[in-house]
Amino acid sequence: MQVVRQNEGASKVSHLDRARRVLQIEAAAISALVEQVDAEFSNAVEAILASPGRVIVCGMGKSGLIGNKIAATLASTGTPSFSVHPGEASHGDLGMVRPEDIFLALSNSGETEEVIRLIPFLEDNGNQLIAITGQPDSTLARHADFHLNAAVPREACPLQLAPTASTTASLALGDALAIVLMEARGFRPEHFARFHPSGSLGRRLLTRVGHVMHTRNLPLVNPDDPASRVVQTISAGRMGVALVCRGEELAGIITDGDLRRAIERHRRDFSELRASEMMTANPKCIDREARLQDAVDLMTEHSITSLVIVENHRMIGLVHLFDCTV
Hints:
Elements: H1 2-36, H2 39-50, E1 55-59, H3 62-76, E2 81-84, H4 86-89, E3 102-106, H5 113-116, H6 119-125, E4 128-133, H7 139-143, E5 146-149, H8 165-184, H9 189-195, H10 200-206, H11 209-212, E6 220-221, H12 227-237, E7 241-246, E8 249-255, H13 256-265, H14 275-278, E9 280-281, E10 285-286, H15 292-302, E11 306-311, E12 314-320, H16 321-325
Parallel strand pairs: 1-2, 1-3, 3-4, 4-5, 6-7, 10-11
Antiparallel strand pairs: 7-8, 8-9, 11-12
């Protein structure tokens, strides 16, 4: 039994060693790209920025899968893009390609038949061609207007057959292309949010405070209400605060923290305190038309969890940090 455990232990160590070797090879492949990136990259970026069309990404097999991700990243960061399968392209999908579009083709060898077959059409259609290959002297690289060199010293696959380091390098170049274009276009978080409306960032940047603020059953107390009433209101409201109001006019706010500090300072006569003696006057407020992200930033800056919504100097609602982040 002990022998089996030792073998299992040795096997686990071997697995870890192999995994680390793979990661080291792929990390070295990406590091090599730093020196390989040249003026062709800048020229490709300028061509895309000047183009009124889209970036159409194409690759076969594993390169096609990498191309799908590159197209998705481009599209979500401000560069209209989609991917097309080279086989389907030759059977009608080339009808989607307009002359003003830029074609981005991926092939590690630069000799992938299905991709090479598209070159005459692209030349006749007037499309500019960007190629990502590992072979600068390949057919695809020679016919490209811009060639991005993704050559790697070796694959992580011990048989040197499965695309591993080469696909990682292509993906990294695609990411670099997308991010450089994103920065050149002045792409901002609110632009990103428009393409990701279902994500948490999109929700915070597109949704207004007025869409989520609480307007009913607010935890309200009068300035003269006793401490017992304040505690009861905060507990019932389940938002960690009580709003101190004179009619519709906001006088202050009492948070859980204010309550604890009042108890510590007035241990014996706490029950005799009034709301006005525990509240924080002039609490942080926000407009109902502000974005949720603005509310999150304001609460984070002041280490608070609630904001009062005011309109024409009247208190009309309350928003909690939880409302802005779920």
